[in-house]
Amino acid sequence: MKITVQVLGLDIGGANIKAASSDGNSEQLPFAIWKSPEQLADRLRSLQLLSSLQPGLVALTMTAELADCFPTRAAGVRFIVQAVTSVFPQIPVRVWLTSGEFCTAEEAYDLTELAAAANWHALATWAGRAVPQGPALLIDVGSTTTDLIPLSDGTPLPTGLNDLQRLATGELLYSGVRRTPVCAIVRSLPLQLSEDAEPQLIPIAAEFFAATQDVHLLTGSLPEEPECTDTADGRPATREAALNRLAHQLCCDATDLAPAQLTAAAEFVAEQQLQQLLAAIKGSDALLIGSPTLGGHAPTPIVSALGTVLAEGDRAKPVGVFGSFGWSGEALDLLEGKLRDGGFHFGFEPIKVKFSPDAARVQAIEETGTALGRQLQAAQRRSERERRPAGGLQDSRSDPAIQALGRVVGSLCVLTAVRGEGESRLSSAMVASWVSQASFSPPGVTVAVAKDRAVETLLRDRPAALVPPRLEDWDAVDAALLADLRADVAVVGTGGVTRGLET
């Protein structure tokens, strides 16, 4: 007999409580937790969902722990968990962690750093089901913040896990559609002071007189909510009240300006907010676009994204195109042609796969990605060197360690590796310059292979060989000796094959 457990999902934010049930219902309650945290439990009990739902499990995420009513984030996490468990004393409560798993309410008391602000990670984990293969970027625009979360094969791969790290990497922007102060987005607003004058930028007050909710009310992006008074001045969230709040940013009343003037100012703020988001996206080092071909065309979202890239993209950064198709792959040709015509340069040749890639093709794609990553790292290192002050050459001449390294005599070789047989056979190679003798008995060498090298994955418990890059030296390879190797790595030089090597 199949037993179905009803699950209640809760997200406790600083300004709103969001609830959803496993039967498909959802609810949002405005609740400014910083004003009256002691009322959190009562607000949870007032959820209409609970009138028809008997949950067998409660799943919890949160962001309200940062509210200034709590002395620390850890104290905020414990307070929220305690409030939820008090409302559901007989029901298991599970708290999502940024480590990608649930824990019990009791465990959350000790895992506050992982439980704090974990709702973005829970959303990304859920959204990853929609893109189980390939890379993706999740953009979550909320009332207070915007999250930019990279995904790979359905798994969140953020650079940072807590809010501080995510702010540093640009994966978290404190810019939302309701609660962000206007003065946090712009420092001035365009205003036409007279009919015959051109609009000019007027500095605004550095006060919380208006928020992005007012901006989007005036642009029509948000509907009016007369019952909502969680605004800068405590008055209703209506367009009329929004006009006055935005006028206060200019140190005047709405009656002092025409509605069209304030609406134009709101449109300016909305555009600047969008540009901030685009700037965060543009902060990437490269741009890759993947697309299937459906009915001879690229899907509409891909075409829209392409238009944004052509209009806003940085031509100095490499781009790439990849995708699969079943017939002729027109979508990939479209992407490639538009990007080339738009003046973009490609980090690699377009990857076009008919139907599904085999193992060899997957390996080649992985090597392409690795090569692009190394290319970007090299460019970053060059940029860092260019920013350093002069004098590096003189320093290298006087540094004994650098002088010693310069006297090391090594060998330039080609490292090859093979895995599998027949159709499953995979092979790769790399130029290895960090090669040196390690021992006489048994004869051995050391080879340095970075973990980000594509060939590295094939070297794990697999036979490999090092061969000199000159074609005339290949005659030194003795097949019989290679077949008799007892070690994982062989070094082949002009003098023959070295056996019994230790890696």
Give the topology, please.
Blueprint: E1 7-12, E2 16-21, E3 26-30, H1 40-45, E4 57-62, H2 73-87, E5 93-97, E6 101-104, H3 105-108, H4 112-115, H5 119-127, E7 135-141, E8 146-152, E9 155-156, H6 163-169, E10 172-173, E11 188-191, E12 200-203, H7 212-219, H8 239-249, H9 259-282, E13 287-290, H10 300-312, E14 319-325, H11 330-341, E15 351-354, H12 359-387, H13 392-398, H14 400-406, E16 413-419, E17 426-432, E18 435-439, E19 444-447, E20 464-467, H15 479-483, E21 489-493, E22 496-498
Parallel strand pairs: 1-4, 4-5, 13-14, 14-15, 20-21
Antiparallel strand pairs: 1-2, 2-3, 5-6, 7-8, 8-9, 8-10, 11-12, 16-17, 16-20, 18-19, 21-22
Helix pairs in contact: 7-8, 7-9
Features:
Nucleotidyltransferase, domain 5, 5 domains, 32% helix, six-stranded mixed sheet, 503 residues, 15 helices, disordered C terminus, alpha+beta, five-stranded mixed sheet, globular, 21% strand
End-to-end gap: 56 Å
Please state the overall shape, judged from the principal axes of the Cα atoms. globular
Q: Give a count of the beta strands, DSSP E runs of length 2 or more.
A: 22
- Tell me the helix content: 25-40%
Q: Strand arrangement, largest sheet?
A: 3-2-1-4-5-6
Which second-level CATH architecture of the largest domain applies? 2-Layer Sandwich
User: What is the CATH C-level name of the largest domain?
Assistant: Alpha Beta
Number of helices: 15
Question: What would you note in describing this structure?
Answer:
It is built from 15 helices and 22 strands. The chain is globular, with a radius of gyration of 30 Å. A hairpin with a 3-residue loop joins β1 and β2 (16-21). By secondary structure, it is α+β, with helices and mostly antiparallel strands. A six-stranded mixed sheet has the order 3-2-1-4-5-6, with helices on both faces. Strands 17-16-20-21-22 form a five-stranded mixed sheet. Strands 7, 8, 9 and 10 form a four-stranded antiparallel sheet that branches. The chain folds into five domains: 7-117, ATPase, nucleotide binding domain (Nucleotidyltransferase, domain 5, 2-Layer Sandwich); 123-173, no CATH class; 182-281, Nucleotidyltransferase, domain 5 (2-Layer Sandwich); 287-373, Rossmann fold; 413-498, no CATH class. It has helices at residues 40-45, 73-87, 105-108, 112-115, 119-127, 163-169, 212-219, 239-249, 259-282, 300-312, 330-341, 359-387, 392-398, 400-406, 479-483; strands at residues 7-12, 16-21, 26-30, 57-62, 93-97, 101-104, 135-141, 146-152, 155-156, 172-173, 188-191, 200-203, 287-290, 319-325, 351-354, 413-419, 426-432, 435-439, 444-447, 464-467, 489-493, 496-498.
